[in-house]
Amino acid sequence: MLTIHTADLLIPGGGRSPLPGGAVLVEGRRIAAVEVYDDLVAAHPSARVRRWPGVLTPGLVNPHGPELLEQAYHPDPREDLGSEPLTGEALASLAMTDTRWGASARRGVQRMLAQGTVAVVGPLRRPAVIDAVHRSGLRIQDGATEAVPPALVPGADATFAVFDAPECVATVIRGRLLHRRR
User: Fold this and answer.
1) Same structural domain, 88 and 128
2) Same structural domain for residues 33 and 20?
3) Pair 140, 119: CB distance under 8 Å
4) Among 99, 82, 14, 3, residue whose Cα is nearest residue 44
5) How many angstroms separate the CA atoms of 127 and 154, rounded?
6) pLDDT along the chain (182 residues), means of 10
7) What is the pTM (predicted TM-score) of this model?
8) Same domain, 66 and 137
9) Residue 157 and residue 93 share a domain
10) Spatial strand order in the sheet of 55-57
11) Domain carrying residue 41
């Protein structure tokens, strides 16, 4: 299925110029085209259209993967532990099993997706955390490489985020809409 994602401004990255009224045509997991919205709709009239407010951009790479996912606990809302991540002594007082680390990582990943994150910098070491990150679709980047999301160009993974200041309204990873605010 073809989907056109459009926003007020498209910033494709990779040194390319911003494109007012730009759009990406997504086919499966890949970007099929990056053009002005009107041109894409004319060429693909049967494509599903998702209109977003704000700016469509490659998304964010979070450089603190281990700190946020393996050195902090994201409480379940049903627990009486508050809503903010626990670290230090509060974390040390919990009985952390692999199952609990995996559940915490899933909740942490959901927070990241809601902020427009499309990749985290590792290395991650806990198998339950790595599994949760992989299942979400987030990429794990090696800490030795520069943390830069891939540009929005034809043939690239359909991975991007949409921001309408001050919030992220959508996060798409490999063609899948994984976070939607509106």
Assistant:
1) yes
2) yes
3) yes
4) 3
5) 34
6) 97 96 98 98 98 96 95 94 94 95 97 96 95 95 77 97 96 96 76
7) 0.92
8) yes
9) no
10) 19-20, 9-10, 55-57, 160-164, 167-173, 176-180
11) 2-59+149-180
